[in-house]
Amino acid sequence: MPDMDELLDQVRKQTEEVQRIQRSVEAMEVKAHSRQNEVTVVLRGDGRFTSIDIDPRAVRQYDARNLSEIVLEAVNNGLQKLAEASSAKFAPVIESAKSIEA
């Protein structure tokens, strides 16, 4: 059974690793598109969108309602990609924590 100093050291190391990963996630940029690439969005790891680009042909081709659905599709795709990328970055820490609990 590990002593208290060893456990505290493990917790400190994990906390530092989580903070390092969090900084890398926040610095990440994710690009996503609507199904037919009419809309492209870019968002940062902190969840803030930095750009939304709409193909000019889509503006002429679709009415406002359809275009808003296409924008929403690209935004949701971006959020999903961000969640997946964040989970992938944190996976090693989560697995490490599980092994300590066991």
Automatic annotation (TrEMBL):
Keywords: Coiled coil, DNA-binding. Gene3D superfamilies: Nucleoid-associated protein YbaB-like domain. GO terms for molecular function: DNA binding. SUPFAM superfamilies: YbaB-like. Transmembrane segments: none annotated. The keyword DNA-binding applies. The keyword DNA-binding applies. Residues 4-31 form a coiled coil. This is Nucleoid-associated protein, YbaB/EbfC family. It comes from Amycolatopsis coloradensis.
